[in-house]
Amino acid sequence: MKKLWVALGLYAALGLLIWTTMSDSPVPIAGGSISIRAVPLAIVAFFAVKTVLRWKAEQIQAEDEES
Fold this sequence. Notes:
By secondary structure, the protein is mainly alpha-helical. Helices cover 73% and strands 12% of the residues. The chain contains 2 helices and 2 strands.
């Protein structure tokens, strides 16, 4: 559980660094535009969700092995 909180804290710190250091200028993509800050934030969010899902899967697997 401690590793999960450390990982999530590091993801949050990385997200904060991305938010404060990258500009919010739009980049044209396929007729629309997206913030240049949104792309790395989405990637970090993806890894955070993946980490939580993997942690939950390991908990379920450990419960199944006990029974």
